[in-house]
Design a protein that fits this description.
Length: 176
């Protein structure tokens, strides 16, 4: 009985994090000011960050959770962008927003960062405050913020990595 229940829970978990069946991306129409990081329980790999202090940099906000298979599939790309562009002004901020109660554990998140080799800043958003501020509803979700603090591009789900990287390059090339 327990094994059957475990299979059902696992199937539901996998289905839940695959919200967009296909990836969607869009260059934001009229750019809107990015919401501030808010209600963060803990910052990992970094001192607390705020968008005001990141003005003049390009910021990639990545909403993720460590058990979502779609999120896991995006991590090699996010880590590559961080390494490739951090010296050119890109700041990657992972916003870990848990889907399940066990994902709220700081130790579990720290273990996941080590397991996946994540070295960029990660905000633990256990109360969904930043998630709600962005009106986000997907794992994974990318929000690209330009040097003036405006959201210029969003992408939900896996895929379109070349397009996302092209938007990062375009944002980095623009005057601050």
């Amino acid at each position: 009985m327990f094994a059957q229940l475990k299979k059902i829970v696992l199937a539901a978990a996998l289905a839940a994090c695959v919200l967009p069946l296909s990836s969607t991306a869009q260059a934001a129409g009229p750019a809107v000011q990015a919401p501030e990081f808010t209600g963060i329980e803990k910052w990992l790999n970094s001192e607390p960050l705020d968008l005001a202090s990141l003005r003049g940099k390009v910021v990639l906000v990545d909403f993720w959770t460590y058990t979502c298979i779609n999120c896991i599939h995006t991590l090699p790309y996010v880590k590559t962008w961080h390494q490739k562009y951090k010296d050119q002004g890109l700041v990657v901020v992972g916003v870990h927003t848990p889907e399940f109660p066990f994902e709220r554990s700081m130790q579990n998140v720290q273990d996941a960062l080590k397991r996946f080799g994540i070295t960029y800043p990660v905000a633990q958003d256990n109360k969904y405050a930043t998630w709600d501020a962005y009106r986000n509803i997907y794992w994974p979700a990318f929000y690209l913020i330009d040097k003036q603090g405006k959201i210029i591009y969003t992408h939900f789900g896996e895929g379109q990595y070349k397009e996302t990287e092209a938007m990062i390059q375009q944002a980095l090339a623009q005057a601050g």
